[in-house]
Amino acid sequence: MLNQPFNPLPLDELTAVFARIKGLLLTEDKVDRALQLLVQAVSDAVPGSAGAGISLFDAQGRGSSTAATERLVEIADAAQHDLGQGPCVAAWMAETTVLVDDAAADDRWPLWSQAVASLPVRSLVSTPLGTTGAPIGTLKIYAALPGAFTAATGRLLEKFAVPAATLMAHVQGPDTPRHLSGPFKGALAGRDTTNRACGILMERHGFTAEQAFRELLRRARAGGTPLSQVCSDLAGGPGLPAAG
């Protein structure tokens, strides 16, 4: 663990950061600038940060790095997007902040941990970006040392995420992933089509919840179909295609 105490930026400094963003003319050509200001503020606010970034997810569940302070962030994020697993995918899926103390020892996402093993990536915090409805993406921060972040880091990131999501909702252009549809809301709470579709796959194939969700993502990507439609077809259809 880091010996230094966690001392985030004072709230007045955070307010100043968002005042700068709000002062930009939020046209499409200003979106990149606003997002870079945001992720740089996040990185500056946390001691030991190796970089921060934002990922967005489209209707097929495909992730993309929209802003990053370092190339390292883009590489580590790309591994998650390509593999369909990792702390940011988990934060988006479960709609909750995810903390990684040591990527080298964390067995929740083995393919991703293996993919970043050669990178200076050990700690990570990722929190969902959303205002109403399901999250549109995640805001995350990386560190090169294990145990660099705590629950307090997660709470700070959540403070950034709320206005960041509001900003994203107002500046999304035609090439930016849109808000995800309703069936993702509360997917783990048993109240929607996504949860029922996951349950079908878990029962029929013995999948875990995460494996079932990855299978839904695979089908959506393979067919170029929105995840919501894949889930609806599976939950309401007469048959169940074989898992790939």
Do you know the CATH architecture of the largest domain? Answer: 2-Layer Sandwich
Q: Strand order across the biggest sheet? A: 2-1-5-4-3
Let me know the CATH homologous superfamily of the largest domain: GAF domain
Number of helices: 9
Strand content: 5-15%
What is the terminal-to-terminal distance?
41 Å
Largest sheet: 5 strands, antiparallel
Pfam family, one: ANTAR
Protein name: Transcriptional regulator with GAF, ATPase, and Fis domain
Keywords: Kinase, Transcription, Transcription regulation, Transferase
Organism: Arthrobacter ginsengisoli
Architecture overview:
InterPro entries: ANTAR, CheY-like_superfamily, GAF, GAF-like_dom_sf, GAF_ANTAR, WH-like_DNA-bd_sf. It is a single chain. By secondary structure, this protein is an alpha+beta fold. It has two domains: 11-171, GAF domain (Beta-Lactamase, 2-Layer Sandwich); 182-236, Arc Repressor Mutant, subunit A, CATH 1.10.10. Helix content is 48%, strand content 13%. The protein has helices spanning 11-23, 28-45, 71-83, 87-94, 110-115, 151-171, 193-205, 209-223, 227-236, and strands at residues 49-57, 63-68, 98-100, 123-129, 137-143. Strands 2-1-5-4-3 form a five-stranded antiparallel β-sheet, sandwiched between helices. Strand 4 and strand 5 form a beta hairpin. The N and C termini lie far apart (41 Å).
